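Hey,
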Amino acid sequence: LLDGKKTAEDIKNEIAAQVQKMKNNGEKVPHLAAVIVGNDGASLTYVGSKVKSCQQIGFESTLVVLPEDTSEVELLDKIKELNEDADIDGFIVQLPLPKHIDEQKILMAIDSDKDVDGFHPVNIGRLVAQQDGFVPATPAGIIEMLKREGITIKGKNATMVGHSEIVGKPCALLLLNEWATVSICHIETRNLKMHTIDAEILVVAVGKPYLITEDMV
């Protein structure tokens, strides 16, 4: 059983020690900002946990809460402000956004060097080219957990079930960059069991509980 909560706590403790060293050396402490539009309960909880994590590890944090009826132009202005603010090292715009706002336009407006979610096409391109850049958090966490548990990825048959831009595709690329042989499955895949039964590493990121049954592993 892989314990993600323990891994997360270990990483937070390691980062807290690094931040303390930075403070001792008089260096600037990283500053994360989060932007949320509206009052979606799940989004508020998610962003709140990020702010709490920042406090735990010693980062500066700023939470920007905008009303549900914020226009696309107003949100773009706020993003421009954060892009140009030298004190802000990185920021996220919490998804989903209200329906009257074009998510792709918003994600494209974020400076790729401050795009800590790793959703900007430039950062996706860097991931493909194996260059330094921001990687979406969930896929990065999956790879980190495998490594910290001493599970060899190189040479393994890995199956990724789900091909979203947020988890499936970047996770498949990260596995490929670690020299796994990767199969990617999605809603149109015929005979899913054929791809999961021989997988030495199986990652599932779909919106359907219990999709993978005992006989498929």
